[in-house]
Design brief:
The chain is 42% helix and 19% strand. The chain is an alpha/beta fold and 269 residues long.
């Protein structure tokens, strides 16, 4: 078994040596992932894992990739995307330019989903999508816009359930078991590393999406990140969270009004 104080030592190492701050992540979630990694990479003891992380920057990349959550899919929760399509994009379409931030975007499936929605609403031409994540290796997958072809059937079904009416396969080229999404989508995506724990606001956005990330943070860090989103949203901007996340009881609750059951909030003036 790994003790809590051992995890604290490792987290301090990560911050002191590399600047990664995981100290406010849910301890239970971190512990599960670290135990899994010890098993996967066959470390005989926690001390040897800690030594490897401290001394091997290449292994650090693997460590960060394994303990951060990178589970995502295109058009996940189709009713959420239907609400974006029907309720949010028509309002954003009245603006001269649209800035959208996907915070904690992982491998980018949700970013490409948004690009498709914007294209179908004839808004992609005046939009920029900022895709950020703590993990540089997953951002490389966003940059390439290549996903397994085996997932396209499910993604197509979710796309249709979200109100999509086009042939989903028209958005990508299939080759060697991979689906590469069209360049007119990717050229509107700006990719950058960003640490929600320690980095500050970098633009004023009309819509921020951060879905299924806050559930891995403790309450203080959730509040800190929500204050960052509040500072990063323009007046009457929108914030979208995951199905198990909420602004209730948060430090910014009174600044927002929930629009519907799809976990979308509108910032007040």
């Amino acid at each position: 078994m790994i003790e809590e104080q051992e995890i604290d030592l490792l987290l301090n190492d990560l911050f002191d040596i590399y600047g990664y701050d995981f100290t406010s992540y849910s301890k239970a979630s971190l512990k599960r992932r670290i135990i899994r990694l010890c098993s996967l990479d066959k470390f005989p003891s926690f001390a040897e894992l800690r030594y490897r992380v401290r001394t091997d920057p290449t292994y650090l990349k693997r460590f960060v990739e394994e303990i951060t959550v990178n589970v995502t899919e295109m058009f996940r929760d189709p009713s959420f995307y239907k609400s974006l399509r029907e309720d949010i994009l028509p309002v954003l379409g009245t603006k001269p330019f649209i800035r959208i931030w996907h915070a904690g975007c992982s491998t980018g499936e949700e970013v490409y989903s948004m690009a498709i929605l914007l294209k179908e609403a004839n808004l992609l031409r005046k939009s920029l999508l900022y895709a950020t994540d703590l993990n540089p290796s997953v951002l490389e997958k966003v940059r390439k816009g290549i996903f397994p072809l085996t997932q396209m059937k499910q993604y197509s079904e979710s796309y249709i359930a979200s109100g999509g009416t086009h042939d989903f396969s028209s958005y990508y080229t299939a080759n060697y078991g991979q689906a590469k999404f069209n360049s007119d989508l990717s050229e509107k995506i700006i990719i950058s590393t960003h640490n929600l724990v320690s980095d500050s606001s970098f633009n004023e956005f009309d819509l921020i999406l951060c879905r299924n990330v806050l559930i891995y943070f403790d309450k203080d860090l959730q509040d800190r990140v929500l204050k960052l989103f509040d500072a990063s949203l323009g007046p009457l901007g929108y914030l979208a969270l995951g199905t198990k996340e909420t602004l209730k009881f948060s430090a910014v609750q009174n600044k927002f009004r929930q629009l519907n059951r799809e976990k979308i909030w509108k910032k007040m003036m």
